[in-house]
Batch of 2 targets.
Target 1
Amino acid sequence: MTVITEANTAKARALLAELTLDEKIGMIHAAGLFRTEGVPRLGIPPFRMDDGPMGVRAELHNDSWVPLYNTRDYVTYLPSGSALASTWNPDLAYATGVALGEETRGRGKDVILGPSINIKRSPLCGRNFEYMSEDPVLTAEQAVRYVEGVQESDVAACAKHFAANSQETDRLYVDEAISNRALRELYLPAFEAAVKRAGVLSVMGAYNLVNGVRCCENGWLLDDVLRDEWDFDGFTVSDWSGVKRTKESAEVGLDVEMSVTPDFDDYYFANPLKEAVARGEVSEQDVDRKVFHVLCVMDALHMLPDGDGTRPVRKAGRYATLDYLQTALDVARESVVLLKNDDGLLPLDADRVTRLLVIGANADRVHSNGGGSAEIKALYEKSPLLALCSQLGGNVKVEYVPGYHAEQVVQDVSWQEGSLENSAGSDDADEARDCTLREEAVARARAYSEAGDPIVFVGGLDHEHDLEGRDRTDMTLPYGQDALIEALLDVAPNMIVTFVAGSPVEMPWADRAKAIVWSWYSGSEGATALAEVLTGAVNPSGHLPETFPMTLDDCPAHSIGTFGHEGHVEYTEDIYVGYRYYETKDVPVRFCFGHGLSYTTFEYADLDVRRVDDTVRVACTVTNTGSREGKTVVQAYFGLEGTGEDRPVKELKGFAKVDLVPGESRQVIIDIPEAKALGYWSVGADKWATAWGAAVYVGESVRDIRLTADLD
Ligand code: BGC
């Protein structure tokens, strides 16, 4: 889909003809950490960008990473990509995009550096919290609507990081060996959808190399695939310091160079590029092509003056408003995942609760100001403790004990200056202190349990672990939480275990816990949503957008391929990422892809799968058979048949979220373009091919299949 019109290209061409080489060069490299140079004599403003993707980042100095520390750049903290994916609700992705686009424009920016849509290959990737899913269809559906929402406001979204930025370790230099099949089927489709279906106006070249070629020098990715195959007509921008050589990046479709240091004139696309043009090593046409893309997008965003010098009307946007906080809450509510609820332990009977014990440092934490470039200067972020107290009201005595020690993460203001180096985590263990905290928590839990009063544990991760520039080294809970949970369950078997985190953790005690609730870094109101699920004010409807394996050793990126190495990693697991592997190889998992419980129950009937013109239509009837209104996610998986190649037994092809009152039945229809439903990248032919048929599975998770049919 193209957003750039003929009028945009005409104006871009006309302006380009007026520009000097110096002016052109100024428009394609940074003149500030988040902006390019404008051309005042022609009314061309600087291009202003900002992170992304969970809200608009705080205002920094033009040439240093130190914030301005003013009071006018507080914004809505929107739920992370993983939370958004967990809703399985594209309408909420659109609402998120609308809020973010308006806030971006409201803050006077032109480009928001999101969505982050890399596929989660390993649970250890430090930026998984920003990313959406291990599955390309779920990622694509959410990304498309998010981009459409952002771009309503005369703001460009920026799909990042193109491509396969699946690990943080050695992220600037690691070379990733990936088959064409895995690229085409897993790592590229969300970008393709953002370009072809949503008309995303910018794409960020990743730091890493793919098959030996740096992404920001990669003619195959940036020209052949992005421009020629997908008809991308927006502009590309390097990740900050993703350009490492002038000629090699200048000659491919990398349009704008951004970086982390303030020596803007020395950037590869600054004086060195000018000199390369003068020496005839880079043609001025290459420079023109880049400036043309920038001008086209600027005009599409109504940034350029008309021929008579007047400025077109541009949307104004607004930020830090109550309605976007409401959007953040709406999304958070559908993102909480009820992983386990034996004996109907949840929801708490709020009318009968007189006191509640809350244990765990994440109850008393906020997370917005961390994680790397996705940090947010949030207007506010409620902690779970605040949200629980506020939900339960003054008649309930809430007691809090931390149970373990976790320093509140405070991100170093200028961490990004050093972000090009690998960093190591710190371990703040102190045996005596930790032992005292644990004993105190166990003693309180015993007393509450004996009295029949509820206990909620709020643990998980924080941005010391879910963090740009660093991968986790294992999948276990930090700060001794596993031992603490075991000890607590010994004395309080009905303890409700909840988490705030950005990536899966091992849960060796999971069989002993009756109720487990998962929440992500889910925005200003994320804790409200968690509290509402616990009290039953909200019926949970989040479903896992990624598998929670039993242990890290089960994960194919680690057991088959390599992950987290410096220099070179092999994606030997190929397309067998996440559930594609666990299902095909029948590997037990802790919680499977798509899993999520509700306080009501749903029945599925009447599956009908047929071809209608160029689509495959999957239809079934879903009935709410419980006693509460609730939403479920109808998931359609296909096992392609007759390909003659090794294929996953199940691949998500479509889904729909449906809201039903008790007793209500509804026919759910999922239409999938036939090329997507039956398409696969043939290893033999090294191109797209179409399967003749498929086994179709419909259910509430990849393992909770309710209906099956054959498509011949
Ligand atoms: C990140 C990008 C981000 C950029 C600007 C880089 O470190 O990888 O996602 O947009 O910085 O802050």
Target 2
Amino acid sequence: MAELHHETFPPPESVKNEAFINSMEQYKEMYQKSIDDPEGFWSEIAKGFYWESEPTGKFLDFNFDVRNGPIYIKWMQGAKTNLCYNAVDRHIDKDGDRLAFYWEGNDPDDDGQVTFSELKDRVCQFANVLKSLGVVKGDRVAIYMPMIVDITVAMLACARLGIIHSIVFGGFSAESLADRILDAKCSVVITSDGVWRGTKLLNLKDIVDKAVEKCEHVGHIVEHVIVSRHLLPEEIVVGEGDEERQPAVRPCRHLNIKWNAPRDKWWHELIEGASTDCPCVWLDAEDPLFMLYTSGSTGKPKGVVHTQAGYMLYSATTFKYDFDYHPDDIFWCTADVGWITGHTYVTYGPLLNKATSVIFEGVPTYPDPGRFWQIVDKYKVSKFYTAPTAIRSLMGFGDEHVTKYKRDSLKVIATVGEPINPEAWLWYYNVVGNKKCAVVDTFWQTETGGHVITPLPGATPTRPGSATFPFFGVVPEILSEDGKTVEGEGEGYIVFKQPWPGIMRTVYGNPQRFETTYFKKFPGYYTTGDGGKRDKDGYIWVTGRIDDMVNVSAHLLSTAEIESALVEHKLVTEAAVVSHPHKIKGECTYCFVTLKQGNKFTADLIHELRAQVRTKIGPFATPDFIQEAPGLPKTRSGKIMRRVLRKIAVGDKDIGDVSTMADETVVDELFKRRPEDA
Ligand code: WTA
């Protein structure tokens, strides 16, 4: 096993003193109960929520083993509840005036706030709008919005009515958005006019227009595009179409918004006069709540489906214990709501706990790299959650941007999205946290709904780079390639042996893919696709993906997805993409492309290929390295040897056993053509 960072950090006394769980003994006792008697453990937690009616059958029913028939997972079947009711309405009587969100704009002078009562009114009004447009339980609605309060309003309004929301991250291109709208057959898209990110003003509406057009080309009609007005009047011009219906807009320097009436509708016009009363639809525990697309190793994204009761119990419980949330805390998760982290820890987890949290529109480096800590001081944030890529990037700007701010409110500082290197962990602990905060490295996936391996801030002694131990109800194992359980110290595939409430239930429209992706390789287990190690003290260290996925700045991408974007270029015959280490992003992509005979590999072509990936997938997927590959290393049966390509990408000549390679001469050629900066 490679060297692990074995320095251990006990939980800070101040955190421990007020923690729900303040010793490993207490954790172990609760953990044991959660896995020996999941029904007893979770039914106790369920008592803290509102149920319109009790379960009618087994509290937990599942099959995790393909050899025994189809995979299924059902928690609290027959119970009726509503997540929106539990996240919002339940708190109103006693705490309606409590703040649900501080909203912090991209511009440091732009901010706002919303109480639980106001949130309820806004959600009800918008739910009434959806109803009036004929959207009903089970319909899918796509949401493509920036980090503004309306995105949570849209989610909660869907949840209130049993409408399945499918949020697409605002960094995806029109094509990616169109693919997701089509796969889920959404007839409504909710968006915004635009968004400021740092110095950039992005025209979200224009991207939606293009996506909707693409859908129309293949015969799918999006009936309603609802546009939340986020920009100031002087920042937009609404052109083309029904001028009469437009609010007064002044000519502007910035954005041109096309308007296609009657399809396009302003949110603020729709809610005018809409009632602030809207009864919740009582839903079955296993009714779908939302779907969220995540990259798949075959290239086509998978719509991960989460359901009402299980996701509710799990998002709320992980939020409470892993951030040790108390009523006087201010929580801030910097993740975009377009990713699972934002679903669970910007919207649902905090609201279910009646928490006050921050929603931030902007970026960590605008107007300067001290922005995060300025916001921490402004709102007295005590529990902070971000990604290693942000930590590494801010580390590069120097400590003075951090130390300039007090940060004395911070107690728990957490990370998610990718393995955190010990250097970044230690900087986070020493500089950001002033050696007095608990660092909580949470491992989980879109599919797991919430944290599955994580320290508890008041109980777990942490080690830089280790996500430590399983959360309640989660039974991790490490398996060898041939499926044997690795006991004690060792390395292999990270799998889970039994379901916890927040695990995904299926892939939207494709139960077969759900089984093959997660349950086939090791029958009896949910396979994460990640590799990991267990040290001699039982700490788990997630080392990263061992399938064809790349984790770029905590955004999971499949290499196949990028390859298919590249081969769509008219000069490209074949492409192979592998991951390459990157100082800030963690990983980046390195692409090998084979051109059609007689074509030159030029700087212009590289430019075109990068642009191609941007338009097909989105700006965050833009490759860092592209090199020409006159031939690719393949086995005699024609399979690309990615293991060899990964070596070439980093310039490591020790490529290992190549006895199965059809033509070894390609390897030298590839080494010769590596770009200088790689
Ligand atoms: C990676 C994000 C190491 C992992 C919540 C996983 C991590 C993928 C960690 C899921 C962590 C997430 N340590 N790796 N703490 N957290 N990952 O679906 O490879 O966007 O499989 O969910 O991110 O990414 P996803």
